[in-house]
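Sequence, structure tokens passed on for absentees:
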Amino acid sequence: MDTREITSQYRFNQWTEIVRQCRSSGQTVDVWCAENNIKKTSYYYWLRRIRKAACEALPSLSGNNPIVPLNIPDDTINMDSSDRESSSDIVLRFGDVNLEIRNTASATLIENTLRALQHVR
């Protein structure tokens, strides 16, 4: 790795930390940037670069590894929690969001879902 790549990676890590701090502050971008003497244009430039890098880091789409859209039936959303838990083999909870996986789910679907979850914060 040459000096230019090291410098680029260092800056990228700094930008990532700045975006992380802003997002976790609970403040709006305008307020947080003003309090931290950061130009909003710089913040959004960094955010755009981070998002681009994140998209490039995702596995490429191929016929062997498709992204599967989730169609959630309305009656599933209205089920009470005891009905949902009894019909699923795995239930993952992220705040107000529940992800339910049944034993009949394919290994590919589970693998793709877990890969996608790695990028969720």
The chain is about 60% helix and 10% strand. The first strand starts at residue 90 and ends at 94. Residues 74-117 form one domain. The chain has two domains: 3-57, 74-117.
